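Course assignment 3, question 2. Fill in each field.
Student: A.L.
Task: Predict the tertiary structure for the chain below.
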Amino acid sequence: MKLTGRQTQTKTLADLYRSIDKATCVTITYRDADGTETIRTVEPWELRTTKSGRIQLRAGCRLRGDARSFYVDQIVSYTVHRIGFVLERPEATTPAARGIVVRSAAQLIARELGRDYLPTRRLVRTDTDLAA
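Answer field:
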């Protein structure tokens, strides 16, 4: 079992990406918003960055038998297994433009940098207030 508090978030994300690539299950200890901890075995499908900047793990939960979302910063500990997936992945029910799907560590880093350093509004050629 790996405790997320004792390692960098990059290491946790790398392990989750490896699990996604190999299609292997992960058992997580997850702390809900109200502070209760649950242990779940999940089949991770993708990592997303929300508009607020939080990283979200989208996975099939074997306890509930359907798709669930888990915030990576609320995962207390995890264990990566060699067990393969058994749940069927449901079809997408939200429009593609609504959620941001991140498929690699490089995309995640680019997304984070873009959110932090790019302008929040669309720039046009007539904008002169940004000129040096």
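Instructor remarks: The chain has two helices and seven strands. The helical segments are 9-22, 105-117.
Grade: pending
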